[in-house]
Specification:
The chain is an alpha/beta fold and about 350 residues long. It has a domain of about 120 residues: NadA-like (Rossmann fold, 3-Layer(aba) Sandwich), CATH 3.40.50.10800. It has 17 helices and 13 strands. The strands form three sheets. A five-stranded parallel beta sheet has the order 6-5-7-8-13. A four-stranded parallel beta sheet has the order 2-1-3-4, sandwiched between helices. A four-stranded parallel beta sheet has the order 10-9-11-12, sandwiched between helices. The chain is globular and about 65 Å long. Bound molecules: 1,3-dihydroxyacetonephosphate and iron/sulfur cluster (SF4). The site of iron/sulfur cluster has 13 residues, from loops. The site of iron/sulfur cluster (SF4) has 13 residues, from loops.
Length: about 350
């Protein structure tokens, strides 16, 4: 093979070893694709045992990664918690670069690998540490909350991190602790607008966008509603507010997944990245998925092939300056130390306060 790895074959042993996984994903993966995936899955799982490694797989990974090699799967908050807890020697982040950095920040003594260094994020790219320093000068005394979708350098400049699963809770805790009624929430404008509708804390926001979720609009949701009137529509809080207003539920990727697996709606629409529906479908066989979704090109850089190479060659290691990592850890750890969010973001709260606005920087 071009990468120096040995070609792997779909032997009867591999077929038998991966048969339970195949049963799980067969509605989403073709038999021909499985002949290519199964030997890689078997090899990756062998390498993980040999090297005492774990794969942390985000909900947007393709089903062969998510179900085939993910030791821990979930949203950004869940994966960060696992990174802090695991006693494996090596963490392979099947997700994007900021997630791998979060793992390294929380596990400085472990080797953290990202299978493709180009797996970025439009939100993380939208703001720098220098921007945050200037914002602090402009708003002295106002606490700065940053979404985990940021670089370690940006996290190092902030008071506390949040994810889509706990943003309201974190913003309220930050305001309470600082004794203010205003909080700066960076860098996702839409997450900030959606949080503002669920709290009395006044939000100051940056104009970063997720390139996947900003593309959904109210007209998409109206069309879906008209075509599938009985479907439950679930949207990620990185979508514009007009989308959430028309949805039945808003929550992190894991909150959406829990909604489907617990309530088992007959039809569901996940207004988010495309692989989510494939992964949840494997755990919710009775539910029909309508799929107006967008692909995240960064998440899609991760494949079974490059996860195998990451483990074989122990590449690409995530390295963070020790001082930056220590300051970023404080902000991430403060978030992790909050109790897990009890109630995920709910549509009725969003709707009730649709007049609330944010101050844009
Ligand atoms: P979650 O934390 O909800 O998994 O979101 C991460 C992300 O990148 C969504 O676009
Ligand atoms: Fe970033 Fe959006 Fe991709 Fe998530 S889906 S990694 S926020 S670009």
């Amino acid at each position: 093979m071009a990468d120096g790895s040995q070609a792997l074959e779909f032997t009867p042993e591999v077929e038998a070893l991966t048969a339970p996984l195949w049963e799980k994903v067969r509605s989403r993966v073709t038999p021909l694709e499985w002949r290519l995936h199964a030997p890689l899955i078997a090899e990756i799982n062998r390498l993980k045992r040999e090297k005492n490694a774990v794969v942390l797989a985000h909900n947007y990974m393709t089903p062969e990664i998510f179900h085939g090699v993910g030791d821990f799967v979930g949203d950004s908050l869940g994966l960060a918690r696992e990174a802090a807890r695991t006693d494996a020697k090596i963490i392979v982040q099947a997700g994007v670069h900021f997630m791998a950095e979060t793992s390294k920040v929380l596990s400085p003594d472990k080797k953290v690998l990202i299978p493709d260094l180009r797996a970025g994020c439009s939100l993380a790219a939208s703001i720098t540490a220098a921007d945050v320093r200037l914002i602090r000068q402009r708003y002295p005394g106002i606490p700065v909350v940053t979404y985990v979708n940021t670089t370690a350098e940006v996290k190092a400049e902030t008071d506390i991190c949040c994810t889509s699963a706990n943003a309201v809770q974190v913003v309220e805790a930050a305001a309470r602790e600082a004794g203010t009624d205003r909080v700066i929430l960076l860098p996702d404008e839409f997450l900030a607008r959606n949080v503002a509708r669920q709290t009395d804390v006044r939000i100051i926001a940056w104009q970063g966008r997720c390139e996947v979720h900003e593309r959904f609009d109210a007209e998409d949701i109206r069309q879906v509603r008209a075509a599938w009137p009985d479907a439950q529509i679930l949207a990620h809080p990185e979508c514009p507010a007009e989308v959430l207003e028309l949805a039945d539920f808003a929550g992190s990727t894991s909150a959406m997944s829990d909604y489907v697996t617990r309530r088992r709606p007959k039809q569901v629409v996940l207004v988010t990245e495309c692989s989510m529906a494939d992964n949840v479908a494997a755990d919710a066989p009775g539910t029909e998925f309508v799929r107006p979704c967008n692909l995240c090109p960064h998440m899609k850089r991760i494949s079974l092939e490059n996860i195998r190479q990451a483990l074989e060659q122990e590449r690409f290691e995530v390295i963070i300056d020790a001082g930056v990592a220590a300051r970023a850890r404080r902000a991430v750890q403060r978030m992790i130390d909050l109790p897990p969010p009890a109630v995920p973001a709910r549509y009725d709260l969003v709707k009730a306060r649709s007049h609330v606005d944010v101050e844009l920087i």
